[in-house]
Design a protein that fits this description.
Structural class: alpha/beta
Distance between the termini: 49 Å
Number of helices: 11
Strand content: 15-25%
CATH superfamily: Thiamin diphosphate (ThDP)-binding fold, Pyr/PP domains
Helix content: 25-40%
Number of domains: 1
CATH architecture: 3-Layer(aba) Sandwich
Length: about 350
Amino acid sequence: MSYILKPKVHHPSLQKNAVGLTRRDYEGAISTLCAGCGHDSITAAFIQAFWELDIEPYKVAKLSGIGCSSKTPAYFLREAHGFNSVHGRMPSVATGAAAANRELVMVGVSGDGDSLSIGLGQLCHAIRRNVNLLYVLENNGVYGLTKGQFSASADPGSTSKKGDINSMEAIDGVLMALTLGATFVARSFSGDKAQLVPLIKAGLSHKGFAFIDVISPCVTFNDHEGSTKSYAYTREHQLEVIQADFTMPQEEITTEYAPNTTKRVQLHDGSVVTLSKVGEDYDPTDRDRAYSHIRELHAKGETATGLLYISPDSVDMMDQNEAVPEALYNQPFDILCPGSAELDKLQQRFR
């Protein structure tokens, strides 16, 4: 995590929202990600969404795991609560935090490696339980923090920067979320702020598990096993005086396109991703149609974006368990610990 905070000096003419805060009040530390990284665009979308929703930062809890994506929470809402968990375990921490304090706005930020490999089981159960959480998966198809190995979301036939071809099938987070019964499913592109900001706002307002898969290009990765210029090889064969890395700055990729249209976007490495935005007549409450629509476009090499599915009757985990509406940390002891007699009654139900 970066520890360098941005200056808090604000120009007096900056526009304020309903709670008297400017966009600058929703910023965090200075990003240490590569220049041009799509994750920083997602950070900007988070800042805009929270500012537009008039959410006070101290009422937010940000949670993450391990990876480039999991550094993102450091870069927005410096006044919010935060927890950087171990690799793949963020959903468990988020579930506990959401149960302990229902008054907080819960945001989980993860990546395709953190979510779809080591954390796959954790993510599945958070979806199944319908934890009241906005879960943003920053998806770049590689382990960017460890220099470019294919992740579980890499499409078969895609190549790495050094030319290797991925022969394995991909895990599509959106299709998985739909299959597991997620009550809010969306996909976007980090460079499409006009689409991403409203989706984040909708996800924050949803009561239940809101899953947003964001395609977020990694601008550089070339520290693969077998390379004599890799970190591992250099540390074994050279006298290390300082750990450093350098990436040539690149321009942020942005795009805009109308509903029910398709847009081809060229990424930094010359490859092209084809985005297909859902039309205004698309019904996001039909889970089966959403699944079919995504598969149909995938067969044509296109990626569906937008709000793909939302349940009109979502019941989150705490309501399913008939929990009190207030935060648990603020409950009296006799409510949280009713005594051995109540425990005996509970155990009798399972005999």
